[in-house]
């Protein structure tokens, strides 16, 4: 009796400040977090304030495509 689609999906959050400043992804890297969200409760893209070790401060991390 399992449902066809799972409500909970895994998403990747990426620092928006590092991406906006044009940090070279190969050399320095960009801060990324992996988390889960409920598709039914949060249909839009997820944005959370998380600590970015590259910027050394709390910044907004937005959901990206896999």
From TrEMBL:
Q: Which GO terms describe its biological process?
A: translation
What keywords is this UniProt entry annotated with? Chloroplast, Plastid, Ribonucleoprotein, Ribosomal protein
> What is the recorded name of this protein?
Large ribosomal subunit protein bL33c
Tell me the organism: Coccinia grandis
Q: What is its main location?
A: plastid
Record carries keyword Cell inner membrane: no
Q: Which domain of life is it from?
A: Eukaryota
Family affiliation: Belongs to the bacterial ribosomal protein bL33 family.
Instruction: Give me the Gene Ontology terms describing cellular component.
Output: chloroplast; ribonucleoprotein complex; ribosome
Show the InterPro entries listed in the entry.
Answer: Ribosomal_bL33, Ribosomal_bL33_CS, Ribosomal_bL33_sf, Ribosomal_zn-bd
* Ribosomal protein among keywords: yes
Query: Where is the protein localized?
Result: Plastid, Chloroplast
Name any one Pfam family assigned in the record. Ribosomal_L33
Q: Name one GO molecular function term.
A: structural constituent of ribosome
């Amino acid at each position: 009796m399992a449902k066809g689609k799972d409500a909970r999906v895994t998403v990747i959050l990426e620092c928006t400040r590092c991406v906006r400043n044009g940090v070279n992804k190969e050399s320095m890297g960009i801060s990324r977090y992996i988390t889960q969200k409920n598709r039914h409760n949060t249909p839009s893209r997820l944005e959370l304030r998380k600590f970015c070790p590259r910027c050394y401060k709390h910044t907004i991390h937005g959901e990206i495509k896999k």
